[in-house]
Amino acid sequence: MTTIRLHSYFRSSTSVRVRVALALKGLGYDYVAWNLRADEHRSRSYLDINAQGFVPALEMDGLVLTQSLPIIEYLDERFPETPLLPADSAGRARVRSLAAMVASDLHPLNNLRVLRHLESQYGADQASQAAWFRHWTRATLDPLEAVLAQSEHVGRFCHGDQPGLADICLFAQMLNNRRFGVDESAWPTLARIHKACCDLSAFDSARPERQVDAVHR
Amino acid sequence: MTTIRLHSYFRSSTSVRVRVALALKGLGYDYVAWNLRADEHRSRSYLDINAQGFVPALEMDGLVLTQSLPIIEYLDERFPETPLLPADSAGRARVRSLAAMVASDLHPLNNLRVLRHLESQYGADQASQAAWFRHWTRATLDPLEAVLAQSEHVGRFCHGDQPGLADICLFAQMLNNRRFGVDESAWPTLARIHKACCDLSAFDSARPERQVDAVHR
């Protein structure tokens, strides 16, 4: 068995995704914490691991893997038991598209560096940043709810009755939403699937507050 | 041979990506134009195709595929000749990560809906929007240049001597950069790879100005 080392920050949404994937695969790993609030990810020692300065990064098989979705695709190819993507191309396209809605259209607009930039460039205060967060969250989760509510492929999870890549992205996003007071009442399907995720220990173990570097406040 | 229908807008960066992939695969398709400047993508008739209201969408095999990278992954699985991803898992992870840097960390921050929102929420004028665009472009392309400049895997293109998913994302982004007056002098490797893409007819044919709905001004 290869040694796996995860570079992570407890609250990072993209780190949550990879932690869930590792847990669903039953893979143990060394946890290396980088404090984003203290800009440790901008340090020379971290930039030598990932020039982009983002967590997560995953070291295994002599590789340094970056970007949460490509990392999860790699894990799924490397450890095909408990698949996180469907076996058929149409199903894979569907799950990847649902995941991309969150990972490409929603999350990048709402992460810490963007909120900080809004503050420095436009003087956006906490309330304005929260409004920005809610705006882009609704812009994606409204159509995501519509897509899932009418899909024949939805089961207990986004695609059938086993959790996968789309659920992982949704779960991490929904955790973030609660920090920004997003009203979830318009998304009953998303809330139901999120609840199904929360009921699984693999998802629960990946929560920010379960990590060794969690700051409780 | 299946009939392929591409829902597109000439200037859409994500549409450019799919057009390049189709051209690299040698696949013909029907082009259905939606005018984003006239909000046609928000019309009922388009939302019935893609509830998210984004182009591109690709109809084939009785499916409606959405999200450019999942669409390209589907095309690559369906038509494995002229692969757009490497044959090995490590190579795929690398190419997907390079693509995600552009597709998840850069482009979502700089598209039309975000620039419009900056204007409506913070009164950002054209100059301020362009500064925003340049800021996030540099934030990703600086480390992308660093990663590629030191990589043993780089050849004529991002991964070896054949174009693939990472080149597709880079090409579309570089076209956008020129519209916003981004200084590319700090990215010689990216410029070299972009030039190699421009020299191929598959990339050239996907340019905005080559499309039937192109508006020249």
TrEMBL record, chains A, B:
GO cellular component terms, A-Z: cytoplasm
Outline the extent of the GST N-terminal domain. Answer: 2-83
Q: Which domain of life is it from?
A: Bacteria
Asked whether the keyword Isomerase is assigned, the reply is yes
Q: What is its EC number?
A: 5.2.1.2
- Record-level GO BP terms: glutathione metabolic process; L-phenylalanine catabolic process
Molecular functions per Gene Ontology: glutathione transferase activity; maleylacetoacetate isomerase activity
InterPro entries, from UniProt? Glutathione-S-Trfase_C-like, Glutathione-S-Trfase_C_sf, Glutathione_S-Trfase, Glutathione_S-Trfase_N, GST_Zeta, GST_Zeta_C, GST_Zeta_N, Thioredoxin-like_sf
- What keywords tag this UniProt record? Isomerase
Q: Which Pfam families match?
A: GST_N_3
Which ranges carry the GST C-terminal domain?
A: 88-217
Question: Per the similarity annotation, which family is this?
Answer: Belongs to the GST superfamily. Zeta family.
Q: Which PANTHER family match?
A: MALEYLACETOACETATE ISOMERASE
Its protein name is: Maleylacetoacetate isomerase
